[in-house]
Write a structure and sequence with these properties.
The structure is a homodimer of 89-residue chains. Chain A is mainly alpha-helical. Chain A has 4 helices and no strands. The longest helix of chain A has 31 residues, at 58-88. The first copy, chain A, is globular, with a radius of gyration of 15 Å. The N and C termini of chain A lie far apart (52 Å). The interface between A and B is large, with 38 and 37 residues.
Chain lengths: 89, 89
């Protein structure tokens, strides 16, 4: 029961940027998303991975590696759509 | 050194929605932010708090309580600005 709650908590937060990627991909708009938030999260999640490696904790490493890869996609989208929107306006 | 990395990781991710709140407050726009992401994170972070209470881990509880409160602000902004924008367009 408690393991299930922990797993659900980890999955929901780990995969939280998937709906943001889906929305931005559909609308081709990201301008209301804060780039400071994206970079702050990227750095924070990267430090979590380093900390997980030190603690030899595979859960910390895997959860944050998944989040890092979705964040990388979002940052890429931010720059590709951001540049396009500037050109169109 | 490792404690510092862990603390930096926790602080950066815990406070990651502050720049998003600041940006949305400044621009009064949130429409590119995914509401599914916000609710998924809210539920995930809430489950983390419940898990933290069960594990009696104050770090998990405090970190996620801070994130939950910033998420609550963002969800409130999403609805108040979202409704305004619909009315203006």
């Amino acid at each position: 029961m408690w393991k299930f709650i922990g797993a659900a908590a980890a999955s929901l937060t780990m995969l939280s940027f998937i709906p943001q990627i889906a929305r931005s991909f559909r609308t081709k708009h990201v301008k209301d998303v804060s780039p400071v938030m994206l970079f702050q999260l990227f750095l924070g999640v990267l430090l979590w991975i380093i900390y997980g490696v030190y603690r030899k904790d595979p859960i910390i490493i895997i959860a944050n590696a998944v989040t890092l890869s979705t964040l990388a996609v979002l940052i890429f989208m931010y720059f590709s759509y951001g540049v396009k929107q500037k050109g169109q306006e």
